[in-house]
Design a protein that fits this description.
The longest helix is centred in the middle third of the chain and has 33 residues. The protein is 63% helix and 4% strand. The protein has three domains: 345 residues, no CATH class; 49 residues; 132 residues, Transcription Regulator spoIIAA. The protein has 555 residues and is mainly alpha-helical. Helix 8 crosses helix 15 and helix 17 runs antiparallel to helix 18. The protein contains 24 helices and six strands. It starts with 6 loop residues before the first helix and ends with a helix. The strands form two sheets. Strands 3-4-5-6 form a four-stranded parallel sheet, sandwiched between helices.
């Protein structure tokens, strides 16, 4: 297959009526799920709700039609909320449109130059740190609407915002709070017990119905924005001002990098769920085109949306056609049902965004990070803190600088000079393969060099071939002098992938620094303590035990 051909055209070769019906059902489902999210992201970014829907329609269609991921759903996401709000506050809506267009051009350049895999050079603690920070910031922007507080403009800075909210808390509306809390509970109940029911839509419809029937004194989209106009806005090319372009270069880079990271993370999730393999550079080009076109229709920046992509796959999507139908579903709602949106209470949208911010926060990663080295914890904490109290661009810059310094230190610490002695030669015999027999029921891979962020993609050498591997995979770590949090996560994912297919992973020969990090992170709970062997000799023995145990269980 052509590596630059969008997935949509590949899927046309064997497309039939059965697949179209499956795509139609999935597309309509994810379109309904995307509706409240698109409006909520727009409102929390500081723009009218229709801007989020415009973005979801235009970019959702283009990303599916031109992208390198089979099931990816594109549109506005929570990752952009804080950045977009900051750009609008400083440069206005026209500044946002120019910035989005610039980010689109950057994404296309990244894709054309083959830099689609470059985002892996951002280490795990940095990604988790700014994801945690963004989630907290999004949640903080929804407190006013969730509790129906009566106050003026909410400060853009986190500490000032929390102070203003605390001062205004005596104006709480119990009707709005009950509505927001009920919406929140409904979504959580659907997520827990009725997984096939779109909780966001249930909460949106029931919350709006209750507010309208009982005429609750709560703020709605109609009272705040005057409703949503029908259809797409007129085509408008943002006016490029050279003085503004230079000022917007840094925010545009932030939007582009966020878009690249989020879309490729979403594509990876899609691959795991669907068994497909995305094309990262094609995906970035599609994301770039979508972000160039979006502001021309009054839309926001867009990227791959992990939750909507997962919903699309669970709903039975077969091809990118489902993503295109999702966009057309939203367009149909805009054309035929836009006037009804004015009845939607702001408290309901706030409840929806509370759930979104919790889900995107990757909070479960924090306990794992706290088990790692002090350096990894420091990178995560600095990134998180600066995201919350300063801004995302500064947070990522500082996080990357710290990570780079830690990388240099890790390589320097693990570099050694030692004399080769007779004892050294004798002790090394258990690690060599030349005099050992390799049975058919196992295969051996090795990692040669530091396994740090930026190198973890090489694990595809194993993961892409899992189905053809024998029952046990031995991974030699003797020539891997250094390991970091991102590398450890890749090893955990490999162990999980092998386990799902009924295969075993045995690791051997880990050196001091990698072994210490594994013990701190309690890696043995993932792979099994008995599968962490000191040498290739003991790993071969362990593989033999596993083979005999498997043969016995079959009998």
């Amino acid at each position: 297959m052509n590596p630059w051909l969008p997935k949509f055209f590949e899927c046309l070769a064997d497309y039939d009526k059965k697949k179209f019906i499956a795509d139609l059902i999935a597309g309509v489902t994810v379109g309904l799920v995307a509706l409240p999210l698109a409006m909520a992201f727009a409102i929390s970014s500081g723009v009218p709700p229709q801007a989020g829907i415009y973005c979801a329609v235009v970019t959702g269609f283009l990303i599916s039609a031109l992208g390198g991921s089979k099931m990816q759903i594109g549109g506005p996401t929570g990752a952009f909320v804080v950045v977009v709000a900051g750009i609008i506050a400083k440069y206005g809506i026209e500044g946002l449109f120019v910035c989005t267009l610039m980010a689109g051009i950057i994404l296309i350049i990244l894709g054309i130059t083959g830099m689609g895999t470059a985002v892996r050079f951002i280490p795990r603690p940095v990604v988790v740190g700014f994801t945690n920070g963004i989630a907290m910031l999004i949640a903080s922007t929804q407190i006013k609407d969730f509790f129906g507080l009566k106050m003026g403009a909410v400060p853009s800075e986190f500490l000032a915002r929390m102070e203003a909210l605390a001062e205004a808390f005596h104006t709480i509306s119990w009707e709005a709070t009950a509505l927001g809390a009920s919406s929140l509970a409904l979504i959580l109940l659907c997520t827990r017990y009725l997984k096939r029911v779109p909780g966001y839509i249930v909460a949106l419809l029931l919350g709006t119905l209750v507010a309208a029937v009982f005429q609750l004194p709560v703020e709605t989209i109609g009272s705040k924005f005057g409703g949503i106009p029908s259809g797409l806005p007129q085509f408008h090319v943002p006016r490029l001002r050279w003085d503004l372009i230079l000022k917007l270069l840094s925010p545009a880079l932030t939007v582009a990098m966020l878009g690249a990271i989020e879309s490729l993370m979403s594509a990876v999730v899609s691959d795991r769920m669907s068994g497909d393999q995305h094309k990262p550079n094609v995906e970035l080009i599609a994301q770039g085109i979508a972000n160039i076109v979006s502001p021309m229709f009054g839309g926001l920046p867009a990227t791959g949306a992990i939750a909507r992509t997962a919903t699309n796959i669970r709903a039975g999507a077969q091809s990118p056609v489902a993503g295109m139908i999702h966009a057309l579903t939203l367009l149909a709602i805009l054309v035929f049902a836009a006037p009804l949106a004015k009845f939607i209470p702001m408290a309901v949208l706030a409840g929806i965004l509370f759930v979104v911010s919790w889900n995107m926060g990757e909070w479960k990663e924090i306990p794992q990070l706290l088990k790692l080295s002090k350096a990894d914890i420091a990178v995560w904490f600095v990134t998180f803190l600066l995201t919350v109290i300063a801004d995302l661009t500064l947070a990522v810059e500082f996080g990357m600088i710290l990570a780079a310094l830690m990388f240099i230190r890790k390589v320097a610490v693990t570099t050694t000079i030692s004399q080769v002695t007779h004892d050294y030669i004798a002790e090394s015999r258990v690690h060599i393969l030349q005099d050992k027999s390799i049975p058919d029921y196992l295969t051996i891979f090795r990692i040669h060099g530091p396994f740090l962020f930026g190198a973890t993609e090489k694990m595809h050498e194993i993961t892409n071939r899992i189905e053809e591997l024998p029952e046990t995979v031995i991974l030699r770590l003797r020539n891997m002098p250094a390991l970091d949090a991102t590398g450890l996560q890749a090893l955990e994912e490999l162990a999980s992938s092998l386990k799902k297919t009924g295969r075993n992973l045995v690791l051997c020969g880990a050196r001091e620094q990698p072994l210490q990090l594994m013990k701190q992170a309690q890696f043995e709970k993932v792979v099994g303590d008995e599968n962490l062997c000191e040498s290739i000799a003991s790993a071969l023995d362990r593989a033999g035990e596993l083979h005999r145990a498997g043969a016995t269980s079959v009998r």
